[in-house]
Amino acid sequence: MGSDSVLVTGGAGFIGHYLTSALLSQGRRVVVLDDFSSGLPLPSHPLLTVISGDIADSSVREKALNQVTSVINLAAIASVPLCENKPKLSSRINYFAAQDLFTEASKLGVSAIIQASTSALYGVPNQLPLIEESSIQPIGNYGLDKQRAEDSLLSIRNTPVCSLRLFNVFGVGQKRDSPYSGVLTIFSDGIRNEKPLRIFGDGTQSRDFVHVKDVVSAFIGCLEELEKNGLNSIISGNKFNVCSGKSMTLLEIVEAFSQFSNNEIDIVFESPREGDILHSLGSFDSLNKAIGWTPSQNFTANLQELLL
Ligand code: UD2
To answer: Domain map of the chain by residue range?
Structure first.
């Protein structure tokens, strides 16, 4: 395969679909490795190769890595409760398989490895907005395994690498039928189907919602930067927040949705979810300074799109 081919693990997932399609539209070859446990089939494309398999299986990784020159690791058990209920599965995929993938890719001399990390690494924030130097204190298996994976990637010195800490990612196409989908997907689905919205707590909790297309532009921006400047790149060996730099409370979200919907919105308040953090907000200054990345400014339009 040519020198422009990228492995996207977890490419059949929500973010993976957007990322794969953006890379293909740039004329790049993409190899998607996914076990399709939660992902959806990708439309066929002459530059796309799909490997259906388990990222924890070394022969599957080998097959995928032998076809590419760069790697983006999105494969993960993304459900926090599932990681709590199945700690071995969480470690197997979110940590060990990721670590093996990074080591093997590095040995093969790839041009770039980028990990999809998470704001869950920060746990309960000591300060807001969160910056990359904020203290790391992950809650639960999901955050812990993601932290270990990030650490193992950033300890690699002879390959251009970076880790992107994604905040609350949203956009059209996120699975609607899962109770663990993001709150914006659950709320928009409820409004469309005229079902009451459940707010866990009093609705004053806030999150930093970043649109999936902004996440894709961060991955591609970092990929191109690492491929161009290699180990001399300013981003190599570093981690970056990928966020909007703004936070909204759930009550503000409902208010914003109500402006776009003729449907009556019923709210049911329930007890706060166990382990929930109250507020989350990130700063994207580092990534902005490094590669000029900025998130889009059309939050309300992106919100409205969820209701269509
Ligand atoms: C996000 C991630 C999670 C993990 C975590 C780390 C998503 C879907 N989840 O969880 O994977 O990275 O961050 O901190 O991106 N809520 C309601 N009603 C609902 C659904 C949610 O009130 O029907 C509340 C929920 O209790 C929380 C807020 O909305 O206070 C956001 O919930 P979320 O699951 O979208 O995201 P979060 O930040 O808890």
So the answer is: 6-169+209-242, 172-207+245-282+298-306
**Model pTM score:** 0.97
Which candidate, 103, 219, 221, places its Cα nearest to that of 169?
219
Per-residue confidence band for 172, with pLDDT thresholds at 50, 70 and 90? very high
Beta bridge partners of 197: 267
Task: State if residue 118 touches ligand 1 by the CB under 6 angstroms criterion.
Answer: yes
C-alpha 296/C-alpha 299 separation (Å) is: 8
Query: pLDDT digit string (tens) for 86-135?
Result: 999 999 999 999 999 999 999 999 999 999 999 999 999 999 999 999 99
Residue nearest to atom 19 of ligand 1 (CA): 183
Q: Which CATH superfamily is domain 172-207+245-282+298-306 in?
A: UDP-galactose 4-epimerase, domain 1 (3.90.25.10)
CA of 109 to the centre of ligand 1 (A): 38
Cα–Cα distances in angstroms (integers) from residue 91 to residues 61, 166, 239, in the given order: 17, 19, 21
Topology given in CATH for the domain delimited by 6-169+209-242 = Rossmann fold (3.40.50)
